[in-house]
Input
Amino acid sequence: MIAFKVSDMTCGHCVSTITRALKGADKDAKIQIDLASRVVHVESTTADSEVLADAIREAGYSPAPVPEAAAVQVEQPRARGGCCGSCR
Output
């Protein structure tokens, strides 16, 4: 898994733009984005980290590589009985 810190990613539109850019570089890539920590995790089937970083740059953002040991896996929210996870 390849991880990037994208400090200038600030909203859902940014997430969508980066996702589209990465899918353009590797349509089969598995992408997890944690907007709160501004970290993008990519499991690519064909592209290397430089190609993925270039795709993010071309979309207008500034990716910084995150060492694999420092990249924390994005945890998916757990449902607590409601539709959005906030309900009890």
Notes: The mean pLDDT is 84. The two ends are 34 Å apart (CA to CA). The first strand starts at residue 2 and ends at 6. The chain has two helices and four strands.
